[in-house]
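Suppose a colleague, Dr. K., hands you the sequence of a protein chain of 199 amino acids and asks what its three-dimensional shape might be. Before reaching for any lab equipment, you can write down a predicted structure in token form. Begin with the sequence itself:
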Amino acid sequence: MKYLKLFLLVNIFLLASFTASAATYNVKYIEFRNAMTGPVDWTHYLSVSHVVGYMGDLATPANRKTFDSASSNKAAWATHEVGKAIDENANTLYHDGSGQHYDKSSTKTYLTLSYNTETAIDALSIWAPTSRQSYAKYDIRFFDKAGNLLLTELFDMRNGSRRQTLNLSVPVPAAFFLFAPALLGFIGLRRSARKAKLA
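The predicted structure, expressed as tokens, is then:
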């Protein structure tokens, strides 16, 4: 009986964790930053080939939520302007200006991708830079129309496929509240069974 209870408890936790693995956010804009740490070198440039939002199955074209505009707080390098990040061509490249990657303060280069109106998304499809995948470790921040920070995701694309999917996660407090009712229900059932046994 002891092991059965432990088995049930573990399964309830796994179910709650699975339910909390993805979430939908109403997003007005996102910000991309390079998230590389350690001594500053060429891998600290901010580079990305293409980014698109999704709501639902990525295989369905109607679920694509293409960003309407792009901007950056600093100039791009040569012809790699900000629009290259959302131009529907995964072989083009946004790349920040020469020398700007050395600024790792709060004013470091960041790329802003915006919707004209708040748009519900639950994932991003991201293409790492062609021949520069070693740059592709990102700090991605999601904001609503009031400028409130909704979510921060650290996404490491340095290994694996050049195109990867970032499923947006539920914040930890929300995940806890999904798990808590299940746990309380299990405790209630246990007490009910105990009372029935005593009767």
